[in-house]
Specification:
The longest helix has 23 residues. Helix content is 66%, strand content 6%. α8 packs antiparallel against α9. It has one domain. The chain has 224 residues and is mainly alpha-helical. The protein is built from 10 helices and 4 strands; from the N terminus they run αααββαααββαααα.
Length: 224
């Protein structure tokens, strides 16, 4: 799962417009942002195995970002930061926390058995990565449905709708590019490249969300 994770952020934005899009986009990949940093530091590890069907990533050691307890802790931390650092309404903060946790739930569908249920415990994963065509259809399908829901909320403003469609198109292009990239054996480079992509798209989300009429209207609502 790669760009499919962003479906949670787009759907969440349609549900709760007071949550800044950049927080949702970054939140959808927060576990992988942490993973990228830890891979670069040699704390979490992966191998490239081109004999594997679909994704060549053998993610054999990532307890601090992709175990179930870690995912829950990252989600709660995101909720707390959104509420008390960004001063967002509780509903918006909860939505951000749920988006962070959605990463683990979606990874459970596609990952092979590399997601720890508890530290040092059993590893799980349904393994849709082994079936690349259905897995890609799942990612694009989720992204398409969430993108339509989000675009619907921007439809009253032509510029807002254009920005939403442009952001969605960029995600689709990113998925296509990733599909055809040759495997990279340098794990530090993998982590650095992934981190750069996540940060760039969080920045694009901030640009897209600036001045959105839905967000402006939401500011006038009573905070709950």
């Amino acid at each position: 799962m790669f760009v499919g994770h962003y479906s949670a952020s787009l759907a969440a934005k349609a549900i709760e417009p007071r949550a800044p899009l950049w927080t949702l986009v970054a939140g959808a990949q927060l576990l992988d942002i942490g993973w990228s940093v830890l891979v670069m530091g040699g704390v979490e590890k992966l191998r490239i195995d081109e004999s594997l069907p679909g994704s060549p990533f053998d993610l054999y050691d990532m307890p601090w970002t992709h175990s179930l307890p870690a995912a829950i802790l990252w989600s709660l931390a995101a909720l707390a930061l959104a509420r008390w650092l960004l001063k967002l309404p509780m509903r918006a903060a909860v939505i951000i926390g749920l988006v962070v946790f959605s990463h683990w739930a979606l990874d459970f569908l596609v990952h092979r058995q590399d997601l720890l249920l508890w530290f040092g415990g059993e590893k799980v994963g349904l393994g849709w990565w082994n079936y690349p065509v259905p897995e890609q259809a799942l990612e694009i399908g989720l992204l398409g449905l969430a993108g339509m829901a989000w675009a619907w909320t921007r439809a009253r403003d032509r510029m807002g709708l254009f920005a939403a469609l442009t952001f969605f198109a960029a995600l689709v292009v990113l998925q296509i590019v990733v599909m055809f990239l040759p495997p990279n054996e340098n794990t530090f480079q993998i982590g650095m490249n992934a981190l750069a992509v996540y940060l760039v798209f969080a920045g694009l989300a901030w640009v897209v969300d600036r001045g959105a009429p839905v967000a402006k209207a939401a500011k006038g609502r009573r905070r709950r």
